[in-house]
Design a protein that fits this description.
This protein is mainly alpha-helical and 543 residues long. The protein contains 16 helices and eight strands. The radius of gyration is 26 Å and the shape is globular. The termini are far apart.
Length: 543
């Protein structure tokens, strides 16, 4: 029997093609017959990719927040040069083209197959992603996003509307986790514990309530309700974090900061002089865990010889506007860079201070002062922090201080500090080559805690500077919450200035990525970076 293979949507060049067959098949060659369709994909495989993409977004955006709040070093003389529309194309693409698109596909499969745990994870990460995008960019696409061919030019939704949608997503996620569906093959964050995911969802709500408190004229009652329930991240054991491995290749599973610093040519990044100075001055017990010194002295400090070839600023005097602020380095080998230093890269890879065992899985600083390279320390077995129990206490301290209750604020500050120190010090065991006798003692920890509480009492800003600085220290590894805190409070107001006396207006929100505005007729670029997100009233002075 003679049949015909009909090709739909394609113009035949020379007529129909004839085949011998027993039946007729019609194909649309616009669809690849060899490719998997969305409904054939594995929800577990999709969820694996979603979790990794989520980790990447949190790590990337947290880096921007860290730079702006001096937790990490910012390379560039002024904010205009450092943060340009092209800077955010990768993170934006990760959010919309990969993460949210995969969540959409996975949720459809999860819904069809009763995989409520999968669905809950997807909704949580979608809510977290959208909140993060609002916090950094302001109004962004949501209701019109990820519609494919239905809308190639999505408009933006108001940040407040997106926050409301995120609250609803989290309520739905909690219901999904409580439904008792089967766990996924891999849960990289909570290893199959639905109850911990519920705590994380409630903790994200706490973060949102704290973020919007100034906009709302006070803390939302929902904050207190969650605290009263006790169903949130209240211990280090419940912290939400992504844990890295130690594989160097195929694939590289190490913490990205470790991969950059522990190389055959030495350190690839500089640590923040501002943060190292604050912690060293206060004899912070976390210092040896955060930073590994490859050198016992810093050139030009405390009478040591300068070294123009490796540390240019060692021959320079501090700029006039740096009066009272640390400059160039610390005497005891903490070799980093000042905020906004845009010098070239000298041959100092085996001299500069490296990222430590926390959070990047580097080396614990036991004062050996050895240059380190590939595989040293914990081999990259670090974490990306997402939501921490210590942060909950810092939010509670902020709420109490804003209401005039300094005593309660100090109590939460102390507890947040204690939880952060305990978490960080536990990482010391990951570096099996280190001499742990250099670790802080219980007396060291207690003495530091007492000093911070005394500084809080003596703080001329009513405790805000100390609260802010300590919150920032606890956020090493992910500075998004520091960036939010700084914008809504204006504290700490004693951060190390930019090396450039006039670095331009502080970035209150990021430019829209150039690949978004250049291809979207529904969106115009912001006039400048002083445009505030909806919860930032712009009343604070930032620098």
């Amino acid at each position: 029997m003679k049949n015909y293979f009909k090709v739909l949507g394609v113009v035949a060049i020379a007529g129909a093609l004839s085949f011998q067959s027993c039946e007729t098949t019609e194909l649309d060659l616009r669809t690849n017959p060899n490719a998997l369709s969305a409904d054939q994909a594995s929800p577990d495989f999709l969820l694996n990719q979603i979790q990794l993409s989520f980790r990447g977004l949190v790590q990337s955006m947290g880096g921007y927040g860290s730079e702006l709040t001096r937790i990490e070093y910012m390379f560039g003389k002024n904010y205009v040069n450092v943060y340009q529309p092209s800077s955010f194309q990768g993170a934006w693409s990760t959010a919309y083209a990969t993460l949210l698109e995969d969540i959409k596909a996975m949720e459809a499969l999860a819904s069809a197959n009763g995989l409520t745990y999968h669905s809950g994870m997807g909704k949580f990460m979608k809510a977290f992603t959208m909140v993060t995008l609002v916090d950094y960019f302001g109004d962004v696409p949501y209701s019109q996003a990820n519609l494919g061919g239905e809308n190639f030019n999505p408009g933006v939704d108001s940040g407040s509307d997106i926050y409301a949608a995120a609250h609803a997503l989290l309520d739905s996620a909690i219901a999904d986790f409580n439904a008792g569906g089967p766990t996924p093959q891999n849960d990289f964050y909570y290893d199959g514990s639905a109850s911990k995911w519920v705590k994380a969802a409630n903790t994200l709500k706490l973060k949102m309530y704290a973020t919007t408190r100034v906009h709302d004229g006070g803390i939302d009652s929902g904050f207190g309700s969650i605290i009263a329930s006790g169903n949130y991240i209240s211990s280090v054991a419940d912290d939400m974090q992504f844990t890295y491995g130690t594989n160097q290749v195929q694939p590289d599973t190490r913490h990205p900061a470790y991969s950059a610093d522990y190389t055959v040519s030495g350190g690839g990044n500089y640590r923040s002089i501002s943060l190292m100075s604050y912690m060293d001055d206060n004899e912070d017990p976390r210092t040896r865990y955060y930073f590994y010194r490859q050198n016992a002295v810093t050139p030009g400090q405390d009478g040591s010889d300068p070294a123009l070839e490796t540390l240019q600023c060692s021959l320079q005097t501090p700029p006039a506007h740096y009066d009272g602020y640390p400059f160039c380095g610390l005497p005891n080998g903490y070799w980093g860079r000042d905020h906004g230093n845009d010098e070239g890269i000298p041959p100092d890879g085996f001299l500069r201070t490296l990222v430590g065992v926390y959070p990047a899985g580097g080396a614990f600083d036991d004062s050996r002062f050895d240059p380190l390279g590939l595989g040293a320390g914990a081999g990259g077995n670090g974490i990306t922090p997402v939501l921490l129990s210590s942060s909950v206490h810092f939010w509670q301290a902020e709420v109490a201080l804003a209401s005039g209750d300094a005593a309660t604020a100090k109590a939460h500050l102390a507890e947040g500090l204690a939880q952060s120190v305990a978490k960080v010090m536990a990482f010391g065991a990951l570096d099996g080559t280190a001499d742990q006798s250099a670790a802080p003692t219980a007396d060291d920890v207690a003495s530091h805690a007492a000093a911070i509480e005394a500084a809080f009492d003596a703080d001329a800003t009513g405790g805000w500077n100390v609260l802010g600085q300590e919150f920032f220290v606890s956020l090493y590894g992910n500075g998004s919450d520091a960036y939010n805190f700084y914008r809504r409070t204006g504290y700490p107001n004693n951060l190390q200035p930019n090396l450039e006396p006039d670095p331009g207006a502080f970035v209150r929100s990021m430019w829209y990525p150039s690949n978004f505005v250049n291809t979207n007729s529904s969106v115009n670029q912001k006039p400048d970076v002083t445009q505030t997100v909806f919860w930032d009233n712009g009343s604070t002075s930032l620098y």
